């Protein structure tokens, strides 16, 4: 079996009917555990659905989730769809299953090359969708699935697409653009006839997962290029399906361009769900930047201590923690720093932290995949993450999502939060903000989410927090955290907060001044000057002439540091 296919299959709740609009029938608004659990599942079974026995044999679930029930018949009929459904409610099967079924109804001769193209914004999500497709295809003898994602050898992508094109291709936009638009490398050209675009000549379905992310400005260029290489849909008709947990008004407008004009919009958000994650307990804590890491350390330890599974009588097993937390940071460099810091703390005091996993765009693809698999399989751990794991990633049993500092927007907050409480399971979210970031809570899209302040946090935990603070300061003052890691975190901080300065109503002077405070107080930077920043980067950020920077010319400083590093890294994490 494929190594990534080890995730446990979750059983759906057995009650609650919902009609084909996905509205749960006969339910009250009382948010007991039971109703919260069953809110997004239907009474429709896969066994009774008009699908092949091969597909039925590949699905481990008995009941459809409401998004699956609400979209199946429309999708089977070939209707273009724009679908909004809560995070973790089974959108992947909702788009893969009907797309596969529609191929079975066609004469085999017309199913050639790549028939289904699924686009996903991150590499990890693409691999996860491939896993789900492999399960669905387990009993379909002639249908195959493959991926084309960034961070892997491009020659193997060419070989896959040109010699054994899979029936279903899961791709990240950047890699697909490279494959479509660059000439085949000369050493491969002799081995293959035809080109990559030719493999899509009989495309039957185009699916966008995390559609709102794919359709925002960040991917526009790639998507335009891809569509130029795909066959004209007036000549080779194909179905388009766009799925996301968040669908803003603007995205709805852009989405219309990717769909037939008679497309259907299906939302399985319940009427009382102002937004997708109202039913996950969410709290926020106001902590100055210098206290963010001690606050996180304390929360991780509390989580570790409160989720203890009792020992099994007669088995000799010891009570063990089942805490699984994802901590989201604004940029990849902040993840690196926290990883070095927490690893050092765990080394000095074994057992005081859960096993640590680290994922972000500055890691190699193999390290990213290993971290994602390790965290997926573990029963206890903490995943330190940039936004690379914010969307679509399905890690079973996540008990807490901890978001540190300002999320890029309300949608991103919701997607990150959606990594917990999936498929009917329990979970909670905590957001830690600096006082200057409180404006995020007043945003219209955030107000309806049900975030409540944890006012008791500081009174009930003050001595533990003081201890965490001095523990962190000790480690930061030692050589355990590399000086260059701190410098890179400072520069990323500068880049990120410079990019959100307008939202925070900070002047350029304030950005620089706060960055200096962050360097000295939050990450223990020692020295007369703050870490150096290249003059070119200072210029690009519009910070020339602002006092408080340590500007160096050329590559004297950190060679890896470039334009708006914080923002760039944020974008990197989402790109292929
Ligand atoms: N009918 C079902 N019954 C029970 N579990 C299901 C069902 N369908 C899917 N699941 C499981 O629910 C989990 C979440 O599914 P999936 O990742 O497709 O959610 P999603 O809606 O795409 O989430 P996101 O919005 O985060 O991308 C997976 O572990 C999947 O196997």
Please write out the topology:
Layout lengths: L16 E2 L5 E2 L7 H6 L2 E5 L7 H6 L4 E3 H11 L4 E4 L6 H14 L11 E4 L3 H15 L7 E4 L5 H10 L4 E4 L1 H9 L4 H4 L15 E5 L1 H5 L1 H13 L9 E6 L4 H10 L5 E4 L13 E6 L5 H15 L1 E2 L10 E2 L2 E5 L3 H17 L7 E4 L5 H13 L3 E5 L14 E5 L5 H8 L10 E6 L10 H4 L3 E3 L3 H21 L5 H17 L1 H4 L3 H15 L9 E3 H6 L9 E3 L12 H10 L2
Parallel strand pairs: 5-10, 5-11, 6-8, 6-9, 7-8, 9-10, 12-19, 12-20, 15-17, 15-18, 16-17, 18-19, 21-22
Antiparallel strand pairs: 1-2, 3-4, 13-14
Helix pairs in contact: 3-4, 4-5, 7-10, 12-17, 13-18, 18-20, 18-22
Task: Provide a descriptive summary of the structure in words.
With 576 residues, the protein is α/β, with parallel strands linked by helices. The chain is 40% helix and 15% strand. The chain contains 22 helices and 22 strands. The strands form 6 sheets. It has a 7-stranded parallel β-sheet with strand order 7-8-6-9-10-5-11, sandwiched between helices. It is globular and about 70 Å long. 49% of the residues are buried. Residues 9-10, 12, 61, 63-65, 68, 85, 87-93, 245, 392, 394, 418, 422-423 line the site of adenosine-5'-triphosphate. GO terms for molecular function: ATP binding; hydrolase activity; RNA binding; RNA helicase activity. Residues 292-465 form the Helicase C-terminal domain. Residues 1-25 are annotated as: Disordered.
């Amino acid at each position: 079996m494929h190594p990534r296919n080890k995730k446990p299959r979750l059983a759906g709740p057995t009650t609650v009917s919902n009609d084909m609009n996905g509205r749960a029938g006969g339910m009250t608004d009382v948010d007991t555990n039971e109703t919260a659990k069953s809110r997004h599942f239907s009474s429709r079974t896969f066994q009774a659905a008009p699908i092949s026995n091969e597909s039925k044999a590949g699905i481990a679930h008995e009941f459809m989730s409401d998004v699956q029930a609400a979209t199946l018949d429309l999708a089977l009929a070939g209707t273009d769809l724009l679908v909004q459904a809560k995070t973790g409610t089974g959108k992947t099967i909702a788009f893969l299953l009907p797309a596969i079924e529609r191929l079975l109804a066609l004469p085999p001769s017309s199913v050639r090359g790549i028939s289904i193209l699924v686009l996903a914004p991150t590499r990890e999500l693409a691999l996860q969708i491939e896993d789900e497709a492999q399960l669905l295809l387990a009993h379909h003898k002639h249908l195959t699935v493959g991926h084309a994602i960034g961070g892997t050898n491009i020659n193997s992508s060419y070989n896959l697409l040109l010699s054994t094109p899979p029936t279903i291709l899961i791709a990240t936009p950047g890699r697909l653009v490279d494959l479509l638009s660059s000439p085949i490398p000369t050493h491969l050209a002799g081995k293959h006839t035809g080109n990559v675009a030719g493999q899509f000549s009989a495309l039957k379905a185009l699916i966008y997962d995390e559609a709102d992310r794919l359709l925002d400005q960040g991917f526009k260029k790639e998507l335009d290029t891809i569509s130029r290489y795909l066959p004209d849909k007036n000549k080779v008709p194909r179905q388009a399906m766009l799925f996301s947990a968040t669908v803003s008004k603007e995205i709805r407008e852009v989405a219309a361009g990717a769909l037939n004009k008679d497309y259907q919009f299906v939302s399985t958000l319940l009427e009382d769900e102002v937004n997708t994650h109202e039913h996950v307990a969410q709290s926020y804590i106001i902590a100055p930047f210098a206290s963010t890491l001690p606050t996180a350390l304390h929360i991780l330890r509390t989580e570790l201590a409160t989720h203890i599974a009792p020992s099994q009588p007669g088995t000799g097993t010891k009570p063990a923690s089942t805490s699984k937390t994802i901590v989201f940071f604004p940029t990849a460099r902040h993840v690196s720093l926290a990883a070095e810091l927490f690893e050092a703390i765990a080394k000095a005091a074994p057992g005081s932290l859960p096993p640590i996993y680290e994922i972000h765009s500055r890691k190699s693809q193999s390290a990213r995949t290993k971290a994602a698999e390790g965290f997926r399989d573990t029963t206890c751990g903490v995943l330190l993450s940039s936004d690379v794991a914010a969307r679509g990633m399905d890690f079973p049993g996540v008990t807490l999502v901890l978001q540190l500092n300002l999320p890029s927007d309300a949608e991103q907050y919701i997607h990150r939060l959606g990594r917990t409480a999936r498929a009917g399971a329990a979970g909670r979210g905590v957001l830690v903000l600096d006082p200057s970031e409180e404006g995020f809570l007043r945003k219209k899209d955030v107000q309806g989410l049900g975030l409540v302040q944890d006012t008791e946090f500081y009174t009930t935990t003050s001595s533990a927090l003081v201890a965490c603070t001095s523990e962190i300061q000790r480690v930061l003052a030692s050589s355990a955290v590399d000086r260059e890691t701190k410098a890179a975190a400072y520069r990323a901080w500068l880049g990120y907060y410079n990019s959100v300065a307008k939202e925070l109503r900070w002047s350029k002077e304030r950005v620089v001044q706060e960055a200096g405070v962050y360097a000295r107080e939050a990450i223990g930077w020692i020295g007369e000057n703050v870490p150096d920043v290249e003059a070119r980067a200072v210029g690009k950020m519009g910070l020339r002439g602002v006092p408080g920077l340590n500007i160096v010319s050329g590559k004297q400083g950190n060679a890896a540091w470039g334009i708006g590093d914080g923002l760039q890294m944020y974008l990197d994490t989402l790109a292929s």
